[in-house]
Amino acid sequence: MRALAISWFVSKAAIRSSSAAGEELRDLIAAGVDVVVVPGVSAAIAAPAAAGISLTMRGVASSLAVTAGEGDVQPARLGQLAASADTLVVLMAHGKLEAITATLVEVLGRDRPAAVISSATLPEQETVTGTLGSIASDVLRAGLRPPATLVVGEVVAQAAANHRQVVALASFG
C-alpha cells in the first residue's frame, strides 16, 4: 500500500486563526485526512512588521487588539475593541475599509494615525499612512488592492518618524 502525502500551506500571510484556515482544517479532518499544523507568524504581527510598524512600544502603546474586517463585523464590537487597546489591527480590512474607519472615527477621532499594508511581505507590498479620517480615501487614491491589513494607533506615527530618521541616516543626510 502506498501512502499519499499532501503539503498544505496558507499563503499571503493568512493566519492560523482565520476562519478560512479553520474551515479548511475542519473539512480535511472530516474527510479523514491526517493533518499536522505547523505554526507560523500571524499576519497580525507580520504585516505591520514588514511595514516597519511595531505594535507595542514603551511609552507609546502597551496593548493590542486584533480582529477581522470581513464577515459579520459588528460596529459596536469593533468600537469596543478599539477603545480597549492602544493599537488595533484589522485583518482583511480592504473590502469594508470605509465602514470600518467610519466606526473607528466615532470612537477614536479622525486624527488617530492609521496605516494600510497591502500584499504584506510580497514584492508588490505597499503601505499607505494617514489618519482614520483620511485613510480610506488615501488607500483608494493609491490604488491599493487586497489583501490588506489596517493598523490604527500612535505606533503608526512613531514608525513614520523612525522611517524618516533611518532614511536620513542611511543617506548621510
Q: What's the architecture of the domain at 43-163 in CATH terms? A: 2-Layer Sandwich
Query: SSE string, helix = H, strand = E?
Result: HHEHEHEEHEH
CATH topology (fold) name of the domain at 43-163? Methyltransferase, Cobalt-precorrin-4 Transmethylase, Domain 2
CATH superfamily of the domain at 43-163: Tetrapyrrole methylase, C-terminal domain
Number of helices: 6
Strand content: 15-25%
Under the CATH scheme, which class of the domain at 43-163? Alpha Beta
Distance between the termini: 67 Å
Sheet bearing the most strands, described?
Answer: 5 strands, mixed
* Portion of residues within helices: 25-40%
Low-confidence sequence ranges: 10-17, 169-173
Apparent shape? globular
Helix/strand-derived category reads alpha+beta
Number of strands: 5
Radius of gyration: 18 Å
> Going across the major beta sheet, what is the strand order?
1-2-5-3-4
- Mean pLDDT across the residues is 85
Identify the notable features of this structure and list them briefly.
173 residues; Methyltransferase, Cobalt-precorrin-4 Transmethylase, Domain 2; 39% helix; 16% strand; globular; disordered C terminus
